[in-house]
Amino acid sequence: MLTRLAIVLAALPVAVILHLEADSIAPVVIVAALTVVTVLMPGSAGAALLIGYAALAMAFGEGHPLRLGVLLLIPALHLIHVTSAIAAVVPVKTKIEPAALKAPARRFAIVQLISFGFAAFAAFIPSGAAIGLVELLGLGALTVLTGVVALRI
Question: Within a 10 A sphere around the Cβ of 17, how many other Cβ atoms?
Answer without folding.
Answer: 22
